[in-house]
Amino acid sequence: MNPRSHSQPQGWHLHPQLAEDTHPVAHLELSELRLMDDANHPWLILVPRIEGAVEWIDLDDGQQDRLGREITAASRALRQGFRPDKLNVAALGNLVPQLHVHVIARFHDDIAWPKPVWGTATARPYSPEKLVERVELIRSALRT
To answer: pTM for the complete prediction?
Structure first.
């Protein structure tokens, strides 16, 4: 899936907590693809650019289909780039109400395995060099 250039819908804004906790990776057809600033895990966040969307059911059928394809593309990029033992995909939104989907590469020897990544370990921010390397790896995997 090739990242494309699309304009931001009027009225849509990235939730401030997502903006603070993540780094931009790609501007997909429906979603912003972002990297969680936690080097403990290869962890992507997809945020559909749909004003007011809180739940999956707030998307129309076409948007749900598109988001599903974007989740698949993000999952495949993580699988290709990192060869995880498992992929975790979730849309919880208990703390950040804006609809967003987590796609996390998990490994049997990661810091949180087999528990969820939330609250298990302190987030380890990326160094500038590692951030550039990780974003480029994911962008490259998206293009294949």
So the answer is: 0.91
**Start-to-end Cα distance in the chain:** 7
Which tens digits make up the pLDDT trace of 110-144? 999 999 998 888 999 999 999 999 999 999 999 98
> Which domain CATH number covers 124?
3.30.428.10
Range of the domain at 49: 16-143
Residue 42 lies in a domain: yes
What gap in Å lies between CA 139 and CA 144, rounded to an integer?
A: 9
- Enumerate residues 6+ apart whose C-beta is below 8 A from 85: 106, 107, 108
Number of domains in the chain: 1
Sign of CA dihedral 46, 130, 41, 84: positive
Query: CA 3 to CA 51: how far, in whole Å?
Result: 21
